[in-house]
Amino acid sequence: MHYPALGGDARGAILYVHPFAEEMNKSRRMAALQAQVFCKAGFEVLQIDLLGCGDSSGDFGDAGWQNWIDDIQFGYDWIRQRTKQAITLWGLRTGCLLAVEAAKVLPEKVNLLLWQPSFSGKQYLTQFIRLKVASEIASGQAKGVAEALRQQLSAGEKIEVAGYVVAPALAQGLESAEMQLDTLAVGNIALLELTTRGSVELSPIAQRKVVDWQSLGWQVNSQVVQGPAFWQTAEIEDAPNLLAASLAAVESWQ
């Protein structure tokens, strides 16, 4: 989906990288709302469905991690042809891991807008596999499920979790992904987390990452904003404070 900048020449361009599996579906409304906010403020926005996801071609079970990085690069090339302004990769959850890896192969520095990033692909995959374990508990067949799934992946076989068929090429790429930035690839950074509690502190791992990145010379805009974890709530929910904070972060880079 392409959202042209309103009001004339674009102030910048933003490429959205969606999260994994069902989190993508849960977050579609928020991604669309944010894209509309950006385009009304004068930014070009491109939202792509990675191979096997949403309205893209192929099946989820055919996708590999490198396929998705290639998709992001294709999206970058497309939007770069439309504007000479700075480009921001905007990721949500595992979309942040993909954005960081894609940034390393792009021919210029890009900005990063990171929504509730997953910092470790290995940890995310473990949590995803636990969905299968949880579904087997009711049937009393949970014992050894996680290990069996990992053995299947090691043997080059696809696994099925929560209705999604995952190929080894996708699982292995996700598992090896870490939030390691490259000074040659990344310009400005905004890291935004959500909470419905009174806490205004970033998660401990986010705090450590921000300190690490600042020690390497990056100016990092990090915030906790009030709002629900819309990518996993039972009902589709909005987080208006996140929309405003994201626009403010991107506009601060102008």
Detailed description of the structure:
The chain is built from eight helices and nine strands. It has helices at 22-40, 65-80, 94-103, 121-137, 145-154, 168-176, 204-215, 240-251; strands at 2-3, 12-17, 43-47, 87-92, 110-115, 159-161, 164-166, 186-195, 220-226. The strands form two sheets. A seven-stranded mixed beta sheet has the order 1-3-2-4-5-8-9, with helices on both faces. The longest helix has 19 residues, at 22-40. The two termini are 24 Å apart. The relative contact order is 0.16.
Distance between the termini: 24 Å
* Uncertain regions spanning at least 5 consecutive residues: none
Structural class: alpha/beta
Mean residue pLDDT: 93
Please work out how many helical segments DSSP would assign: 8
Fraction in beta strands: 15-25%
Share of helix, binned: 40-55%
SS elements, strand count? 9
Rg from C-alpha positions? 18 Å
**Main sheet: which strands, in order across?**
1-3-2-4-5-8-9
The major pleated sheet works out as: 7 strands, mixed
Shape: globular
